[in-house]
Amino acid sequence: MPKLAQNIVDTLHASGVRRVYGLPGDSLNGFTDALRVTDDIEWVHVRHEEAAAFAASAEAALTGELAVCAGSCGPGNLHLINGLFDAQRSRVPVLAIAAHIPTDEIGSGYFQETHPQELFRECSVYAEHVSSPDQMPRMLRIAMREAIEKRGVAVLVIPGDIALADVKAAAEEIRAYPSRVIPAESQLVRAADALNAAKKVTILAGAGVAGAHDELIAIAEKLQAPIVHAMRGKEFVAYDNPYDVGMTGLIGVASGYHAMRECDTLLMLGTDFPYQQFFPDDATVIQVDIRGEQIGRRTQVDVGLVGGAAETISELLPRLGATKKSSHLKAAVKHYQRTRKDLDDLATPSKRTIHPQYLAKLIDDHADPDAIFIPDVGSPTVWAARYLTMNGRRRMIGSFTHGSMANAVSQAVGAQAQDRSRQVIAMAGDGGLAMLLGELITLTQNGLNVKTVVFDNSSLNFVELEMKAAGFVTFATGLDNPDFSKVAEAVGIKGIRVETSADLPAAVEEFLAHDGPAVLDVMTERQELSMPPNITLEQAKGFTLYAIRTVLSGKGDELIDLAKTNMRQLF
Protein backbone atom coordinates (compact mmCIF):
# COMPACT_ATOMS: atom_id res chain seq x y z
CA MET A 1 0.00 0.00 0.00
CA PRO A 2 1.49 3.40 -0.97
CA LYS A 3 2.40 6.00 1.61
CA LEU A 4 0.41 9.21 1.77
CA ALA A 5 3.47 11.20 0.70
CA GLN A 6 3.70 9.13 -2.48
CA ASN A 7 0.05 9.85 -3.24
CA ILE A 8 0.76 13.59 -2.94
CA VAL A 9 3.71 13.34 -5.31
CA ASP A 10 1.77 11.19 -7.80
CA THR A 11 -1.11 13.68 -7.83
CA LEU A 12 1.28 16.58 -8.37
CA HIS A 13 2.92 14.72 -11.25
CA ALA A 14 -0.43 13.84 -12.84
CA SER A 15 -1.36 17.52 -12.60
CA GLY A 16 1.69 18.74 -14.51
CA VAL A 17 3.99 19.73 -11.64
CA ARG A 18 7.58 19.07 -12.68
CA ARG A 19 9.62 20.57 -9.83
CA VAL A 20 9.45 21.34 -6.14
CA TYR A 21 11.57 24.05 -4.48
CA GLY A 22 12.73 23.66 -0.90
CA LEU A 23 15.08 22.43 1.79
CA PRO A 24 14.88 18.93 3.26
CA GLY A 25 14.26 18.19 6.92
CA ASP A 26 13.24 15.23 9.07
CA SER A 27 9.54 16.15 9.05
CA LEU A 28 9.71 16.28 5.23
CA ASN A 29 11.46 12.91 4.86
CA GLY A 30 8.39 11.06 3.58
CA PHE A 31 7.73 13.71 0.95
CA THR A 32 11.31 14.07 -0.27
CA ASP A 33 11.77 10.27 -0.36
CA ALA A 34 8.69 10.00 -2.57
CA LEU A 35 10.23 12.62 -4.85
CA ARG A 36 13.48 10.64 -4.90
CA VAL A 37 11.80 7.60 -6.46
CA THR A 38 9.55 9.57 -8.84
CA ASP A 39 10.74 10.35 -12.34
CA ASP A 40 10.07 13.73 -13.94
CA ILE A 41 9.72 15.79 -10.75
CA GLU A 42 12.90 17.68 -9.91
CA TRP A 43 13.84 18.67 -6.37
CA VAL A 44 15.36 22.17 -6.66
CA HIS A 45 17.46 22.53 -3.54
CA VAL A 46 17.72 26.16 -2.36
CA ARG A 47 19.75 27.62 0.51
CA HIS A 48 16.86 29.44 2.20
CA GLU A 49 13.17 28.54 2.18
CA GLU A 50 12.24 32.16 1.41
CA ALA A 51 14.00 31.68 -1.92
CA ALA A 52 12.02 28.47 -2.49
CA ALA A 53 8.75 30.36 -2.22
CA PHE A 54 10.02 33.21 -4.42
CA ALA A 55 11.17 30.66 -7.01
CA ALA A 56 7.76 29.00 -7.02
CA SER A 57 6.13 32.43 -7.33
CA ALA A 58 8.25 33.19 -10.40
CA GLU A 59 7.53 29.86 -12.07
CA ALA A 60 3.79 30.31 -11.53
CA ALA A 61 3.93 33.88 -12.87
CA LEU A 62 5.69 32.76 -16.05
CA THR A 63 3.72 29.60 -16.78
CA GLY A 64 0.32 30.37 -15.25
CA GLU A 65 0.41 26.83 -13.84
CA LEU A 66 0.61 25.56 -10.27
CA ALA A 67 4.09 25.69 -8.73
CA VAL A 68 5.14 23.97 -5.51
CA CYS A 69 7.49 24.69 -2.62
CA ALA A 70 8.10 22.87 0.64
CA GLY A 71 9.56 23.50 4.08
CA SER A 72 10.15 21.35 7.13
CA CYS A 73 8.52 21.92 10.50
CA GLY A 74 8.85 25.09 12.57
CA PRO A 75 11.52 27.48 11.28
CA GLY A 76 11.75 25.62 7.98
CA ASN A 77 8.28 26.38 6.72
CA LEU A 78 8.17 29.70 8.59
CA HIS A 79 10.93 30.91 6.26
CA LEU A 80 8.56 30.41 3.31
CA ILE A 81 6.27 33.19 4.43
CA ASN A 82 7.79 36.20 2.66
CA GLY A 83 7.92 34.51 -0.73
CA LEU A 84 4.39 33.21 -0.22
CA PHE A 85 3.19 36.72 0.53
CA ASP A 86 4.69 37.74 -2.81
CA ALA A 87 2.92 34.92 -4.65
CA GLN A 88 -0.40 35.71 -2.96
CA ARG A 89 -0.21 39.42 -3.71
CA SER A 90 0.94 38.75 -7.29
CA ARG A 91 -2.03 36.39 -7.70
CA VAL A 92 -0.17 33.37 -8.94
CA PRO A 93 -1.01 29.74 -8.06
CA VAL A 94 1.40 28.21 -5.55
CA LEU A 95 1.02 25.16 -3.32
CA ALA A 96 3.16 25.11 -0.18
CA ILE A 97 3.77 21.88 1.67
CA ALA A 98 4.42 22.89 5.29
CA ALA A 99 5.64 19.92 7.27
CA HIS A 100 4.69 19.81 10.96
CA ILE A 101 5.87 18.22 14.19
CA PRO A 102 4.57 14.73 15.16
CA THR A 103 0.80 14.66 15.59
CA ASP A 104 0.78 13.56 19.21
CA GLU A 105 3.15 16.38 20.19
CA ILE A 106 1.06 19.24 18.77
CA GLY A 107 0.05 21.62 21.52
CA SER A 108 2.78 20.54 23.95
CA GLY A 109 5.38 23.20 23.17
CA TYR A 110 7.47 20.58 21.40
CA PHE A 111 10.82 21.30 19.74
CA GLN A 112 10.31 23.62 16.74
CA GLU A 113 6.54 23.79 17.30
CA THR A 114 4.59 26.55 15.55
CA HIS A 115 1.02 26.70 14.25
CA PRO A 116 1.54 27.05 10.50
CA GLN A 117 -2.13 27.08 9.55
CA GLU A 118 -2.49 30.28 11.57
CA LEU A 119 0.82 31.80 10.47
CA PHE A 120 0.01 31.43 6.78
CA ARG A 121 -3.64 32.47 6.97
CA GLU A 122 -3.04 36.06 5.80
CA CYS A 123 -0.91 35.11 2.79
CA SER A 124 -3.09 32.35 1.37
CA VAL A 125 -6.46 31.52 -0.10
CA TYR A 126 -6.40 28.19 1.75
CA ALA A 127 -4.39 27.04 4.77
CA GLU A 128 -5.38 23.85 6.58
CA HIS A 129 -3.86 21.27 8.90
CA VAL A 130 -4.14 17.61 7.96
CA SER A 131 -4.86 15.73 11.17
CA SER A 132 -5.52 12.25 9.78
CA PRO A 133 -4.34 10.29 6.71
CA ASP A 134 -7.88 9.81 5.41
CA GLN A 135 -8.31 13.58 5.05
CA MET A 136 -5.32 14.02 2.83
CA PRO A 137 -6.44 13.10 -0.70
CA ARG A 138 -9.52 15.32 -0.48
CA MET A 139 -7.67 18.19 1.17
CA LEU A 140 -4.97 18.03 -1.50
CA ARG A 141 -7.65 18.30 -4.19
CA ILE A 142 -9.23 21.25 -2.44
CA ALA A 143 -5.90 23.03 -1.87
CA MET A 144 -4.80 22.64 -5.47
CA ARG A 145 -8.13 23.83 -6.86
CA GLU A 146 -8.20 26.80 -4.49
CA ALA A 147 -4.71 27.86 -5.60
CA ILE A 148 -5.47 27.37 -9.30
CA GLU A 149 -8.95 28.88 -9.45
CA LYS A 150 -8.38 31.76 -7.02
CA ARG A 151 -4.87 32.47 -8.34
CA GLY A 152 -3.22 32.43 -4.94
CA VAL A 153 -1.38 30.41 -2.34
CA ALA A 154 -2.66 27.21 -0.78
CA VAL A 155 -0.85 25.80 2.24
CA LEU A 156 -1.16 22.22 3.45
CA VAL A 157 0.22 21.62 6.94
CA ILE A 158 1.20 17.94 7.18
CA PRO A 159 2.77 16.30 10.25
CA GLY A 160 5.69 14.07 9.29
CA ASP A 161 4.03 10.94 10.70
CA ILE A 162 0.87 11.57 8.67
CA ALA A 163 2.94 11.76 5.47
CA LEU A 164 4.35 8.29 6.24
CA ALA A 165 0.95 6.68 6.86
CA ASP A 166 -0.57 4.20 4.41
CA VAL A 167 -3.44 5.43 2.26
CA LYS A 168 -5.88 3.89 -0.21
CA ALA A 169 -6.24 6.56 -2.89
CA ALA A 170 -5.41 6.95 -6.54
CA ALA A 171 -3.52 9.89 -7.97
CA GLU A 172 -5.73 12.57 -9.51
CA GLU A 173 -5.24 15.18 -12.19
CA ILE A 174 -6.08 18.72 -11.07
CA ARG A 175 -5.88 21.28 -13.88
CA ALA A 176 -7.09 24.79 -14.64
CA TYR A 177 -9.75 25.37 -17.29
CA PRO A 178 -10.21 29.15 -17.48
CA SER A 179 -13.67 30.45 -18.29
CA ARG A 180 -14.75 33.50 -20.28
CA VAL A 181 -16.34 36.12 -18.04
CA ILE A 182 -18.55 38.78 -19.65
CA PRO A 183 -20.04 41.75 -17.75
CA ALA A 184 -23.75 42.26 -17.22
CA GLU A 185 -25.60 43.78 -20.19
CA SER A 186 -26.76 46.76 -18.14
CA GLN A 187 -23.18 47.67 -17.20
CA LEU A 188 -21.98 47.32 -20.78
CA VAL A 189 -24.66 49.78 -21.87
CA ARG A 190 -23.70 52.26 -19.13
CA ALA A 191 -20.00 51.99 -19.98
CA ALA A 192 -20.60 52.47 -23.69
CA ASP A 193 -22.80 55.52 -23.02
CA ALA A 194 -20.09 57.07 -20.84
CA LEU A 195 -17.36 56.41 -23.40
CA ASN A 196 -19.47 57.77 -26.25
CA ALA A 197 -20.08 60.97 -24.29
CA ALA A 198 -16.41 61.44 -23.39
CA LYS A 199 -14.13 63.91 -25.12
CA LYS A 200 -10.73 62.90 -23.65
CA VAL A 201 -10.38 59.22 -22.73
CA THR A 202 -7.25 57.74 -21.18
CA ILE A 203 -6.77 54.00 -20.65
CA LEU A 204 -4.93 52.67 -17.60
CA ALA A 205 -3.92 49.05 -18.28
CA GLY A 206 -2.43 46.53 -15.88
CA ALA A 207 -1.45 42.88 -15.77
CA GLY A 208 -5.06 41.89 -16.35
CA VAL A 209 -4.71 42.72 -20.06
CA ALA A 210 -2.41 39.73 -20.57
CA GLY A 211 -3.64 37.95 -23.69
CA ALA A 212 -5.75 40.93 -24.75
CA HIS A 213 -3.19 43.01 -26.66
CA ASP A 214 -5.12 43.11 -29.94
CA GLU A 215 -8.34 44.10 -28.19
CA LEU A 216 -6.51 46.77 -26.19
CA ILE A 217 -5.09 48.37 -29.35
CA ALA A 218 -8.49 48.19 -31.04
CA ILE A 219 -10.34 50.06 -28.31
CA ALA A 220 -7.54 52.62 -27.97
CA GLU A 221 -7.82 53.31 -31.68
CA LYS A 222 -11.60 53.65 -31.48
CA LEU A 223 -11.44 55.99 -28.51
CA GLN A 224 -8.25 57.74 -29.67
CA ALA A 225 -7.08 57.13 -26.14
CA PRO A 226 -3.49 57.19 -24.86
CA ILE A 227 -2.61 54.05 -22.91
CA VAL A 228 -0.87 54.41 -19.56
CA HIS A 229 0.42 51.24 -17.96
CA ALA A 230 1.00 50.14 -14.40
CA MET A 231 4.28 48.37 -13.56
CA ARG A 232 2.94 44.83 -13.86
CA GLY A 233 1.22 45.78 -17.11
CA LYS A 234 4.38 46.91 -18.91
CA GLU A 235 5.23 43.54 -20.44
CA PHE A 236 1.70 43.17 -21.87
CA VAL A 237 1.12 46.78 -22.98
CA ALA A 238 4.33 48.52 -24.05
CA TYR A 239 5.05 46.84 -27.40
CA ASP A 240 3.62 47.27 -30.92
CA ASN A 241 1.55 50.02 -29.37
CA PRO A 242 1.33 53.49 -30.97
CA TYR A 243 -0.93 54.59 -28.10
CA ASP A 244 1.54 53.84 -25.29
CA VAL A 245 2.51 56.95 -23.30
CA GLY A 246 4.46 55.30 -20.49
CA MET A 247 3.93 54.45 -16.88
CA THR A 248 2.45 56.43 -14.03
CA GLY A 249 2.93 56.08 -10.28
CA LEU A 250 5.80 56.70 -7.92
CA ILE A 251 8.37 55.43 -10.42
CA GLY A 252 6.48 56.41 -13.54
CA VAL A 253 7.19 59.16 -16.05
CA ALA A 254 5.74 62.60 -16.67
CA SER A 255 3.83 61.69 -19.84
CA GLY A 256 1.98 58.85 -18.14
CA TYR A 257 1.18 61.07 -15.17
CA HIS A 258 -0.26 63.88 -17.29
CA ALA A 259 -2.24 61.60 -19.61
CA MET A 260 -4.05 60.31 -16.51
CA ARG A 261 -4.54 63.69 -14.89
CA GLU A 262 -5.83 65.46 -18.02
CA CYS A 263 -8.54 63.06 -19.16
CA ASP A 264 -12.26 63.51 -18.61
CA THR A 265 -12.89 59.75 -18.69
CA LEU A 266 -10.59 57.03 -17.38
CA LEU A 267 -10.97 53.43 -18.56
CA MET A 268 -9.23 51.04 -16.17
CA LEU A 269 -8.49 47.62 -17.64
CA GLY A 270 -7.25 44.79 -15.43
CA THR A 271 -5.34 46.95 -12.98
CA ASP A 272 -5.15 47.31 -9.21
CA PHE A 273 -2.93 50.41 -9.43
CA PRO A 274 -2.67 51.45 -5.76
CA TYR A 275 -1.67 55.13 -5.66
CA GLN A 276 -4.74 57.30 -5.21
CA GLN A 277 -2.83 60.56 -5.73
CA PHE A 278 -2.19 59.73 -9.40
CA PHE A 279 -5.84 59.34 -10.41
CA PRO A 280 -7.63 62.27 -12.07
CA ASP A 281 -9.47 64.56 -9.66
CA ASP A 282 -12.67 65.00 -11.67
CA ALA A 283 -13.24 62.34 -14.31
CA THR A 284 -15.71 59.61 -15.10
CA VAL A 285 -14.09 56.30 -14.13
CA ILE A 286 -14.95 52.98 -15.76
CA GLN A 287 -13.23 49.93 -14.28
CA VAL A 288 -13.00 46.45 -15.80
CA ASP A 289 -11.76 43.61 -13.60
CA ILE A 290 -12.42 39.90 -13.54
CA ARG A 291 -12.55 40.14 -9.75
CA GLY A 292 -15.57 42.18 -8.81
CA GLU A 293 -14.24 42.88 -5.34
CA GLN A 294 -11.45 44.96 -6.86
CA ILE A 295 -13.80 47.53 -8.37
CA GLY A 296 -13.70 50.86 -6.57
CA ARG A 297 -10.87 49.80 -4.29
CA ARG A 298 -8.48 52.58 -5.38
CA THR A 299 -10.74 55.38 -6.58
CA GLN A 300 -14.43 56.08 -6.86
CA VAL A 301 -15.84 54.26 -9.89
CA ASP A 302 -18.83 55.37 -11.93
CA VAL A 303 -19.26 52.16 -13.93
CA GLY A 304 -17.89 48.80 -12.84
CA LEU A 305 -17.71 45.84 -15.19
CA VAL A 306 -16.90 42.37 -13.90
CA GLY A 307 -15.26 40.50 -16.74
CA GLY A 308 -12.08 39.55 -18.54
CA ALA A 309 -10.29 42.31 -20.44
CA ALA A 310 -10.48 40.70 -23.89
CA GLU A 311 -14.11 39.61 -23.53
CA THR A 312 -15.25 42.97 -22.15
CA ILE A 313 -13.51 45.00 -24.85
CA SER A 314 -15.01 42.74 -27.52
CA GLU A 315 -18.45 43.43 -26.09
CA LEU A 316 -17.86 47.18 -25.83
CA LEU A 317 -16.42 47.84 -29.29
CA PRO A 318 -19.65 47.31 -31.30
CA ARG A 319 -21.47 49.66 -28.90
CA LEU A 320 -19.09 52.56 -29.44
CA GLY A 321 -19.94 55.35 -31.87
CA ALA A 322 -17.73 57.22 -34.29
CA THR A 323 -13.98 57.32 -33.69
CA LYS A 324 -13.05 60.12 -31.30
CA LYS A 325 -11.12 63.23 -32.18
CA SER A 326 -7.41 62.74 -31.69
CA SER A 327 -6.24 65.97 -30.05
CA HIS A 328 -5.93 64.43 -26.56
CA LEU A 329 -4.08 61.39 -27.94
CA LYS A 330 -1.73 63.49 -30.07
CA ALA A 331 -0.81 65.73 -27.14
CA ALA A 332 -0.14 62.73 -24.88
CA VAL A 333 1.95 60.91 -27.50
CA LYS A 334 3.97 64.05 -28.21
CA HIS A 335 4.60 64.46 -24.48
CA TYR A 336 5.72 60.83 -24.30
CA GLN A 337 8.13 61.30 -27.19
CA ARG A 338 9.75 64.22 -25.33
CA THR A 339 9.82 62.21 -22.12
CA ARG A 340 11.35 59.22 -23.89
CA LYS A 341 14.07 61.39 -25.43
CA ASP A 342 14.87 62.91 -22.04
CA LEU A 343 15.15 59.45 -20.50
CA ASP A 344 17.38 58.18 -23.30
CA ASP A 345 19.62 61.24 -22.94
CA LEU A 346 20.27 60.18 -19.34
CA ALA A 347 21.34 56.67 -20.41
CA THR A 348 24.74 57.77 -21.63
CA PRO A 349 28.35 57.10 -20.58
CA SER A 350 30.16 59.44 -18.21
CA LYS A 351 33.86 60.00 -17.64
CA ARG A 352 33.26 60.56 -13.92
CA THR A 353 30.88 57.75 -12.97
CA ILE A 354 28.57 55.00 -14.22
CA HIS A 355 24.97 56.11 -14.40
CA PRO A 356 22.55 53.24 -13.64
CA GLN A 357 20.44 54.33 -16.61
CA TYR A 358 23.38 53.58 -18.92
CA LEU A 359 23.80 50.13 -17.44
CA ALA A 360 20.09 49.32 -17.80
CA LYS A 361 20.10 50.53 -21.41
CA LEU A 362 23.10 48.35 -22.31
CA ILE A 363 21.48 45.32 -20.72
CA ASP A 364 18.34 46.00 -22.72
CA ASP A 365 20.28 46.44 -25.97
CA HIS A 366 22.21 43.18 -25.64
CA ALA A 367 19.65 40.87 -24.01
CA ASP A 368 17.93 38.12 -26.00
CA PRO A 369 14.64 38.89 -27.77
CA ASP A 370 12.86 36.50 -25.39
CA ALA A 371 14.82 37.27 -22.21
CA ILE A 372 13.19 37.19 -18.78
CA PHE A 373 14.08 40.21 -16.65
CA ILE A 374 13.70 40.18 -12.87
CA PRO A 375 14.56 43.45 -11.10
CA ASP A 376 15.06 43.73 -7.35
CA VAL A 377 12.76 46.05 -5.47
CA GLY A 378 14.13 49.59 -5.22
CA SER A 379 16.14 51.45 -7.82
CA PRO A 380 16.62 48.40 -10.16
CA THR A 381 12.84 48.38 -10.60
CA VAL A 382 12.94 52.05 -11.58
CA TRP A 383 15.55 51.44 -14.26
CA ALA A 384 13.72 48.32 -15.48
CA ALA A 385 10.49 50.30 -15.79
CA ARG A 386 12.15 53.06 -17.78
CA TYR A 387 14.74 51.29 -19.94
CA LEU A 388 13.71 47.71 -20.66
CA THR A 389 12.05 47.26 -24.06
CA MET A 390 9.16 44.83 -24.27
CA ASN A 391 8.34 43.08 -27.55
CA GLY A 392 5.65 40.52 -26.75
CA ARG A 393 8.22 37.76 -26.20
CA ARG A 394 10.24 39.19 -23.36
CA ARG A 395 8.92 38.85 -19.82
CA MET A 396 9.42 41.04 -16.78
CA ILE A 397 8.39 39.86 -13.33
CA GLY A 398 9.27 40.98 -9.84
CA SER A 399 7.93 41.69 -6.39
CA PHE A 400 5.95 44.61 -7.75
CA THR A 401 3.02 44.41 -5.33
CA HIS A 402 4.54 42.92 -2.18
CA GLY A 403 7.69 44.97 -2.68
CA SER A 404 10.22 42.68 -1.02
CA MET A 405 13.98 42.97 -1.23
CA ALA A 406 16.00 39.94 -2.35
CA ASN A 407 13.47 38.81 -4.93
CA ALA A 408 15.65 39.05 -8.06
CA VAL A 409 18.04 36.09 -7.75
CA SER A 410 15.48 34.03 -5.81
CA GLN A 411 12.84 34.44 -8.50
CA ALA A 412 15.47 33.86 -11.16
CA VAL A 413 15.94 30.36 -9.69
CA GLY A 414 12.33 29.51 -10.58
CA ALA A 415 12.42 31.33 -13.91
CA GLN A 416 15.51 29.45 -15.08
CA ALA A 417 14.46 26.09 -13.64
CA GLN A 418 11.22 26.10 -15.64
CA ASP A 419 13.07 26.84 -18.90
CA ARG A 420 16.82 26.21 -18.86
CA SER A 421 17.24 27.27 -22.50
CA ARG A 422 15.95 30.80 -21.96
CA GLN A 423 18.03 33.80 -20.91
CA VAL A 424 17.16 34.94 -17.38
CA ILE A 425 18.61 38.24 -16.13
CA ALA A 426 18.39 39.14 -12.46
CA MET A 427 18.80 42.90 -12.01
CA ALA A 428 19.95 42.82 -8.41
CA GLY A 429 20.47 45.61 -5.96
CA ASP A 430 23.54 45.25 -3.78
CA GLY A 431 21.34 45.15 -0.68
CA GLY A 432 18.96 42.63 -2.18
CA LEU A 433 21.72 40.34 -3.39
CA ALA A 434 23.47 40.39 -0.02
CA MET A 435 20.24 39.60 1.83
CA LEU A 436 19.98 36.12 0.28
CA LEU A 437 23.54 35.81 -0.99
CA GLY A 438 23.52 32.04 -0.52
CA GLU A 439 21.21 31.66 -3.50
CA LEU A 440 24.21 32.16 -5.77
CA ILE A 441 25.20 28.67 -4.60
CA THR A 442 21.70 27.48 -5.51
CA LEU A 443 22.47 28.49 -9.09
CA THR A 444 25.63 26.40 -9.29
CA GLN A 445 24.24 23.42 -7.40
CA ASN A 446 21.26 23.17 -9.74
CA GLY A 447 23.08 24.12 -12.95
CA LEU A 448 21.03 27.28 -13.49
CA ASN A 449 22.63 29.73 -15.95
CA VAL A 450 21.15 32.90 -14.44
CA LYS A 451 22.86 36.18 -15.33
CA THR A 452 22.99 38.47 -12.28
CA VAL A 453 23.84 42.13 -12.85
CA VAL A 454 24.47 44.03 -9.62
CA PHE A 455 23.61 47.73 -9.39
CA ASP A 456 26.34 48.26 -6.80
CA ASN A 457 26.03 51.74 -5.28
CA SER A 458 27.08 50.78 -1.73
CA SER A 459 23.73 51.87 -0.36
CA LEU A 460 20.08 51.14 0.11
CA ASN A 461 19.60 53.64 -2.67
CA PHE A 462 15.84 53.90 -2.91
CA VAL A 463 15.57 54.24 0.88
CA GLU A 464 18.01 57.15 0.65
CA LEU A 465 15.83 58.80 -1.97
CA GLU A 466 12.78 58.39 0.25
CA MET A 467 14.67 59.95 3.15
CA LYS A 468 15.75 62.93 1.06
CA ALA A 469 12.22 63.51 -0.25
CA ALA A 470 10.90 63.47 3.32
CA GLY A 471 13.57 65.89 4.52
CA PHE A 472 15.75 63.48 6.47
CA VAL A 473 19.53 63.29 6.47
CA THR A 474 20.44 59.90 5.05
CA PHE A 475 21.26 57.50 7.88
CA ALA A 476 21.93 53.77 8.24
CA THR A 477 21.71 53.22 4.48
CA GLY A 478 25.37 52.71 3.62
CA LEU A 479 26.57 49.24 2.67
CA ASP A 480 30.13 47.99 3.02
CA ASN A 481 30.06 45.56 0.14
CA PRO A 482 32.53 42.90 -0.89
CA ASP A 483 33.66 42.61 -4.48
CA PHE A 484 30.65 40.58 -5.66
CA SER A 485 32.55 39.35 -8.70
CA LYS A 486 35.08 37.67 -6.41
CA VAL A 487 32.29 36.23 -4.27
CA ALA A 488 30.81 34.79 -7.46
CA GLU A 489 34.14 33.28 -8.50
CA ALA A 490 34.47 31.70 -5.04
CA VAL A 491 31.23 29.75 -5.54
CA GLY A 492 31.98 28.70 -9.11
CA ILE A 493 30.26 31.51 -11.03
CA LYS A 494 31.96 33.73 -13.60
CA GLY A 495 32.50 37.15 -12.05
CA ILE A 496 33.15 40.48 -13.78
CA ARG A 497 33.59 43.85 -12.07
CA VAL A 498 33.28 47.21 -13.82
CA GLU A 499 34.19 50.60 -12.35
CA THR A 500 34.23 52.88 -15.43
CA SER A 501 31.74 53.60 -18.20
CA ALA A 502 34.37 52.95 -20.86
CA ASP A 503 34.69 49.30 -19.79
CA LEU A 504 30.97 48.67 -19.50
CA PRO A 505 29.82 47.82 -23.09
CA ALA A 506 32.38 45.05 -23.58
CA ALA A 507 31.72 43.71 -20.08
CA VAL A 508 27.96 43.51 -20.69
CA GLU A 509 28.51 41.59 -23.92
CA GLU A 510 30.94 39.17 -22.25
CA PHE A 511 28.58 38.73 -19.29
CA LEU A 512 25.53 37.88 -21.37
CA ALA A 513 27.44 35.67 -23.80
CA HIS A 514 28.97 33.48 -21.07
CA ASP A 515 27.84 29.84 -21.18
CA GLY A 516 26.86 29.47 -17.54
CA PRO A 517 25.84 31.57 -14.55
CA ALA A 518 27.58 34.94 -14.31
CA VAL A 519 27.69 37.95 -12.02
CA LEU A 520 28.38 41.45 -13.38
CA ASP A 521 29.23 43.76 -10.47
CA VAL A 522 28.88 47.36 -11.67
CA MET A 523 29.86 50.30 -9.47
CA THR A 524 26.96 52.67 -10.21
CA GLU A 525 26.45 56.25 -9.07
CA ARG A 526 25.11 56.42 -5.53
CA GLN A 527 23.68 59.92 -5.81
CA GLU A 528 21.57 59.29 -8.91
CA LEU A 529 18.01 60.52 -8.37
CA SER A 530 15.16 58.54 -9.89
CA MET A 531 12.96 61.58 -10.39
CA PRO A 532 9.21 61.00 -9.89
CA PRO A 533 6.80 62.06 -12.65
CA ASN A 534 5.55 64.99 -10.62
CA ILE A 535 7.33 66.85 -7.83
CA THR A 536 4.86 67.75 -5.09
CA LEU A 537 5.19 70.75 -2.80
CA GLU A 538 5.79 68.35 0.10
CA GLN A 539 8.66 66.69 -1.77
CA ALA A 540 10.19 70.05 -2.65
CA LYS A 541 9.98 71.06 1.02
CA GLY A 542 11.45 67.71 1.96
CA PHE A 543 14.49 68.15 -0.27
CA THR A 544 14.99 71.67 1.12
CA LEU A 545 14.91 70.35 4.67
CA TYR A 546 17.26 67.54 3.66
CA ALA A 547 19.74 70.07 2.23
CA ILE A 548 19.63 72.26 5.34
CA ARG A 549 19.93 69.34 7.75
CA THR A 550 22.72 67.77 5.70
CA VAL A 551 24.79 70.97 5.82
CA LEU A 552 24.16 71.38 9.55
CA SER A 553 25.19 67.78 10.17
CA GLY A 554 28.55 68.41 8.50
CA LYS A 555 27.82 66.38 5.36
CA GLY A 556 27.76 69.24 2.86
CA ASP A 557 30.01 67.34 0.46
CA GLU A 558 27.11 64.95 -0.10
CA LEU A 559 25.07 67.84 -1.51
CA ILE A 560 27.89 68.74 -3.90
CA ASP A 561 28.03 65.15 -5.19
CA LEU A 562 24.23 65.12 -5.51
CA ALA A 563 24.28 68.31 -7.59
CA LYS A 564 27.11 67.10 -9.83
CA THR A 565 25.36 63.82 -10.54
CA ASN A 566 21.89 65.17 -11.23
CA MET A 567 22.55 68.52 -12.89
CA ARG A 568 21.72 66.94 -16.27
CA GLN A 569 18.27 65.92 -15.01
CA LEU A 570 17.38 69.35 -13.69
CA PHE A 571 18.45 71.55 -16.60
- Measured distance between first and last alpha carbons: 76 Å
Beta-strand segment tally: 18
Number of helices: 24
Low-confidence stretches: 543-547, 555-563
Strand order, largest beta sheet: 2-1-3-4-6-5
Query: In percent, how much strand structure appears in the residues?
Result: 15-25%
Please bin the fraction of helical residues: 40-55%
Q: What is the 3D shape?
A: globular
The whole-number mean of residue pLDDT values reads: 92
Main sheet: strands, sense, barrel? 6 strands, parallel
Could you say which structural class the secondary elements and strand pairing correspond to?
alpha/beta
Cα-based radius of gyration, to the nearest Å: 25 Å
Describe the structure.
- With 571 residues, the protein is α/β, with parallel strands linked by helices.
- It contains 24 helices and 18 strands.
- The longest helix is centred in the middle third of the chain and has 20 residues.
- It is globular.
- About 2% of the residues have low confidence.
Q: What labels describe this entry?
A:
18 strands; six-stranded parallel β-sheet; single chain; alpha/beta; 571 residues; globular
List the helices and strands and how they pair.
Layout: H1 4-14, E1 19-22, H2 29-36, E2 42-45, H3 49-63, E3 67-71, H4 75-78, H5 81-90, E4 94-100, H6 116-119, E5 126-129, H7 136-150, E6 153-159, H8 160-163, H9 185-197, E7 201-205, H10 213-223, E8 227-229, H11 234-237, E9 244-247, H12 254-261, E10 265-269, E11 284-289, E12 303-306, H13 309-316, H14 327-346, H15 356-366, E13 372-375, H16 379-387, E14 395-396, H17 407-418, E15 424-429, H18 430-435, H19 439-445, E16 451-456, H20 461-470, H21 484-490, E17 494-498, H22 504-513, E18 518-523, H23 537-552, H24 556-570
Helix pairs in contact: 1-2, 3-5, 3-17, 10-13, 12-14, 15-16, 15-22, 20-23, 23-24
